[in-house]
Amino acid sequence: MPETLNTLSQSSLQDYQDCPRRFELRYLQRLAYPAIEMEPALENEKHQREGEYFHRLVQQHLIGIPAEQVGRLANTENLQRWWSNFQDFGSFKDFRSLHPEITLSAPLGKFRLVAKYDLIAINGDRATIFDWKTYRRRPKNEWLHVRWQTRVYRALLAKAGSHLNSGKSFAPEHIEMVYWFADFPSEPARFPYKADQFKRDWDALTRIADEIAAGSTPWHFPPGQVSLTTSSYPKTDEVSKCGYCPYRSYCNRGVRAGDAADAELETEAEELFDVNFEQIGEIAF
Questions:
Q1: Residues with Cβ < 8 Å from 153, sequence gap 6 or more?
Q2: pLDDT for the residue 284
Q3: CA triplet 214, 215, 217: central angle to 5 degrees?
């Protein structure tokens, strides 16, 4: 296992499941993106920036800045609409405590499993995970249910969230995850949790972490170079996914990017953040 690969996240696990070769290129060889993910590129880049900024607006409001003051910073048509929809979403007054932009971590085999949450809201011994989405299309609940984000976020809160509950772990049955869609404000997706789901999820996470650790001996090439033929990480058989992959040129699977409206759900980017393990909730090795 390379020394630089010491954490796993929902995004890296999703990449590994979708295409092990993409996982290798992104997380082991750490290659720069050689191709755009979707067309039209400038419009999609603007939408991504607005999505990131919307998350910042919500976070600022949740830590106590008045809605009117935050709303003045919504300076694009999308941001104004999303912020207005968020104001109508509902109050968080029923929750005892709110923890926006919080990071949790727990050991997982030879790695740490890390997740950054948009919001964890606590009411008694119950916890609700909120995740804000600015998708242009509302995904199906069935698709969200099997995504690693849904599985990782609930499982990790059950595993490493005791410091949010007076030192007592949250029972899986007391955890729910809610996706709220800024362009579909009346259609949130809700996913409660159960003990048997938690066991299945953590067992699956452990198996995948062990599999990655056993197979992740990276090939060493000069900086900026990559082998197109020698790899122990197979390419996906679902060639349709390659139109949305920034590494497709390395695999000789096309040059043209997929359409943004179709690609968005398949290409949710990993949020980059610096992790200070002294300040986040975790469980001991």
A1: 10, 115, 117, 129, 131, 177
A2: 35
A3: 105
Q: pTM for the complete prediction?
A: 0.83
Pick left, alpha or beta for residue 101 (phi over 0 → left; psi -120 to 50 → alpha; otherwise beta).
left
Question: Which of 163, 186, 215 minimizes the C-alpha distance to 89?
Answer: 186
CATH number for domain 7-266, candidates 3.30.980, 3.30.700, 3.90.320, 3.30.9: 3.90.320
Parts of the chain with a pLDDT under 50: 1-3, 37-39, 217-230, 269-285
Q: Domain ranges in the chain?
A: 7-266
Nearest to 221 by CA among 4, 1, 31: 31
Q: What is the pLDDT of residue 208?
A: 95
What is the number of residues in the chain? 285
> 224-267: per-residue pLDDT in tens?
444 444 457 888 888 877 877 888 877 877 655 555 555 565 55
Structure tokens at 135: 């998708």
Q: Pull the structure tokens for residue 149.
A: 């984000």
